[in-house]
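User: My collaborator sent over this chain with a note saying "see what the structure looks like." That's all I know about it. Can you take a look?
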Amino acid sequence: MLPPRTPNHSHGVDRRRFLAVVGALAGTAAAAQVPLADASAAPRPDIGFPFTLGVASGDPGPDGVVLWTRLAPDPLVPGGGAPGRDLAVEWAVYSDERLRTKVASGLALAPARLAHSVHVELRGLRPWREYWFRFRYRGHVSDVGRTRTAPAAGHPLRTATLATVSCQDYSSGFYTAYRHLVDDDPHLVLHLGDYVYEGAVGATAGARGTPVPEPARPAPRTLEQWRIRYALYKSDADLRAAHAAVPFAVTWDDHEVQNDYAGTRSQYEGDISALRAAAYQAYYEHQPLRVASIPRPDGGLTLHRGLDLGGLVRLSMLDGRQHRDVPPGGWGEAPASAAAYAPSVTMLGRRQESWLTARLRAGRAHWAVLGNNVMMARLEHEATPGARLWHDAWDGFPAARNRITEVLATARVRNPVVLTGDWHSTFVNDIRQDFDDPGSPVVATEFVGTSVTTNGDREVYGPYYGPMIRYNPHIRYFDGDRRGYQLHTVTRAEWRTDLRTVEFVGRRGGGVSTSASFVVESGRPGAQRL
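Assistant: Without extra context I'll predict from the sequence alone. Here is the result:
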């Protein structure tokens, strides 16, 4: 919990001005191809090494991806150590890891108003190919990143590998999971929320025991403080290495703004519009998102979007925070609420829900996948059905959930799988068409991932949720207290999920193992343990 503070009245970015400047520089968004000079001809640098936060890529399409970096020579101080003016950054893409064959290059804008972040939307690449990229500002050259485009639309892809991660509290431990994830070499990483946490950070970062400069310690309230918070998290070498090795598709949960918030409302301080606007802008500045997601003047940000992997996977990334109603039954754990069944109550907002419904109905891919931030399956807390539920999940929005599951059932959506973060625990769930009717059919399978670090090496949720599992026959598996990630191997015949858990996060060097594996057979909803 955060105590009430004076809100920061920061404003959103002027989107039209940004796009106009981008077009003038022929860089980001359309990514016009401007030939680069040889490195030997680079002018002398006017700042220190600016690529301290690494490089990243994301949201792959068949002809390109988003490339990201940020110029921040001193990232843990206000302003990041960069001059207060827009800068032009060179970028280049290669078809080989030795960087011998350049296939695209140009200039991209690093706007001061966006913390000198760079978002290059590539076009014209070949589908389902690996590429390598790097940036240069004057005499400084970034690390090399590797990315991959998506298969062509409808391509009969035989196999794809996804990894899911969430909940990476910096003070809870080290990001060992990312080092092992890179070794597993997935095609795409889905980050399902809680990329940063909003609380204060101690002088030695809790379990890490590493020094944290004073500007990075306070709970962020202003835009500059949020920027520093993201920079602190990206100071972790394993996180930077993962972003440099694999494209990401990201969505958020609550801690990117404030615990359990809904829309613009908080149970702790009421209206958090200004806080949310600052947090959303910093989120965009530090993620490989397209210009379509640039923060609007009203403080909002379009995050839901679709990504397809040929004819094999149709992925819908959901935003379950920005548009949701305040839960009618109350914040957190509370008795089930009749008011939550009102047709007007929404988790996704009407526009996003209509988009998702249309996308599910129109999809022809072999697997329909939802990138989701909070658990969709019911979690009964007591023996009496519906007596008490956790309302910061789909349980608090049963009418909204039923509208989605009704589409999954009646539109005969092919092989729905829900991938979820948030819980710092692992669940494997059957999704029923109506959780108020235990006899209703299973319409999808849900894999809820544990945290990368949050809760550390303590036993917290095993003792808490463990006794509840017997009231939930649709929960096929539960593990409350191991950290890690999930690895999903997808073919036309089956979906396989390996639960990858690390030995410890409170110190460096933990190994990784597969604690359990599950398979969903094509045409048969429900996970089977191997």
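A starting point for your reply to your collaborator: The helical segments are 15-25, 176-184, 223-234, 237-245, 273-285, 350-362, 398-410, 461-465.
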